[in-house]
Amino acid sequence: MSEAMEEEPARTEGLRERKRRATRLRIAEEGLRLFVENGYDATTLEAVAVASRISARTLFHYFKTKDEILQFWKGPGFLEALGPTLLAESADQPPLDAVLSCFLKLISRYETEKSVIVDRILNSTEALRTRKQAIYVTMEQTVFAALCELWPRPERRASLRIVAMMAIGALRLAMEAQRQASGTRSLADYLRDNFALLGR
Amino acid sequence: MSEAMEEEPARTEGLRERKRRATRLRIAEEGLRLFVENGYDATTLEAVAVASRISARTLFHYFKTKDEILQFWKGPGFLEALGPTLLAESADQPPLDAVLSCFLKLISRYETEKSVIVDRILNSTEALRTRKQAIYVTMEQTVFAALCELWPRPERRASLRIVAMMAIGALRLAMEAQRQASGTRSLADYLRDNFALLGR
DNA sequence: CGGCAATTTTACAGTCACTGCAAGATCATC
DNA sequence: GATGATCTTGCAGTGACTGTAAAATTGCCG
Fold first, then answer.
1. B147-150 contacts: CB < 8 A, separation 24 or more?
2. pLDDT in tens, B75-93
3. pTM (2 decimals)?
4. Which nucleotides in chain C have some atom under 7 angstroms from a protein Cβ?
5. At how many degrees (to 10) do helices A157-181 and B157-181 cross?
6. Smallest CA–CA separation between B14 and chain A, in Å?
7. Chain B nearest C-alpha distance from A197 (Å)
């Protein structure tokens, strides 16, 4: 059938792309499973590769570093949606209120079972805890950039930078508090409390 | 073997301790020098060991990790003095004012030439930038602990936790701003600005 | 001074994350 | 079904870091 019509360009990007995505998912799943079973440090990438039925060398074509396997699960839940969601907020409210509103819309994805599991691993090792801080920095920059778009007046920039810092800090402390209380109150409650305390 | 020349008969702290301290200092100095000359990543610990005239294995008895060599320079300037200095503040002022006052007393040590050099290295590599964030977390905990001693009423704890977060955040942003402006204003000015913005 | 125990230094071997390279396997397309 | 692009893999190597056990050094006592 030599129909010269290219109605589906996804067909050309088909099998290869799909296979690649499947392999990446398999690595992430097997990796997470082994991390949970044996611990993060005790799990070698060799073992993850074997469980994923690929060579060790190939694994590095899918994940550049070991902790990227964990970021596969952590990433899409929050970071990517942060900028767009915040930009959709109204500029008629105080910036802090906008960020709080945005956070409240997003944190539901963060309370899935898998997120809790990943979070436990993320807190099990110094190297990963440190890595987590880096993510907060990225989120802070994302929030700041979005705030600058919503309130473009340049004389507010310094103030917005502080707002971004306080907002992410409040989020971090809320998650920290909830972890320690282990589930007696919802993350949203802690968030609202912390944001209320920001302005004193 | 040469004669035993004991000009200073140290009682409990003998030759051993002094030699150990000298070796540690030598490693830190040679390490910093090589980091500046060739870059942090490009400098192997093997090279640092050779420059320090010790074996590679011995180096690990003095510094457990590569970045600990940098922390040798960073550490004593700020982190260790933070708790005691903050505890010396008066509890008659708002907590944020106390932290600001404490910071202003301490940051002078942070503007030495060596600190600037170390800071440049600390910002030259992703791994070290991440490491730096971990130090901020430690400082935040230190500030929080001191604040809890100054204002022990338990119902204020949540609020003090936020204060510690905001204070360290303001410090971090001040240093960030000064780095980017490369010295046109003093760190103290940025700090005062940021603390003024915290209360809005 | 000599001898002995405690400590320090070192060599050696090994683990693990990660990289570069080049050959083989697989896939898309004409 | 040949061809070029992409994917997979083995192999060798680097560099941070660890365990071990043998030397060298140091503290101390008689």
1. B147/B86, B147/B95, B147/B98, B147/B99, B149/B87, B150/B86, B150/B87, B150/B89, B150/B91, B150/B95, B150/B98
2. 677 888 999 999 999 999 9
3. 0.88
4. 7-13, 15-21, 27-29
5. 140
6. 36
7. 6
